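Field reference: sequence -> structure
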Amino acid sequence: MSGPPPSTARAEDDAEIVAQSLEQSELFALLYDRYAPDIHRYVARRLGDTVADDITADTFLIAFRIRSRYDRTRANARPWLYGIAGNLIGKQRRAEVRALRALARTGRDPLDVSGGESWLEDADTRIAAQGPLAGALAGLSAPDRHVLLLVAWAELTYQEVAEALDIPVGTVRSRLNRARRKVRTALGADPAFVIDVAEVA
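Structure field:
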């Protein structure tokens, strides 16, 4: 046998799981079990449930195919997976902006055509993405919006966002600061009240 059986894989270390999955491909399912619900929830908040199913599946398929290139110095695979999902979301950017603008204009979720569960499923999301905020998010550049939503919706740390997007932490801070400033301004906040988040973090 070339490695430990699935039940003895070091579950706390994603890098070890990825490494072992090169010989025992079934071990990669541990990462899916660990992170797929979070990836799906994040994509659904941005693009809707139907697209989230496909993007989540594609995220893990791509991750599995390129797992030999995973940086094993990173014990946590979560940022890597969000980076892959982000690239796939980027291909759907126009749909996301259209949905945000429609929500800003009408206050109605454009992806809720059935009257059932909508793009914005829970109350805190519905409140957060209503009208003016949706318009403000749609007005951000794709890189700024992506950083803001990885922090706000995926709850990644600045370091994890940097790893996910393969950019320096300083760039994360500046994009996040710019995005927050634009959103606050769009929502009518006093520009003097806008705090430099780089100093707070």
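Note: Confidence is low (pLDDT under 50) at residues 1-10, 113-129, 192-201.
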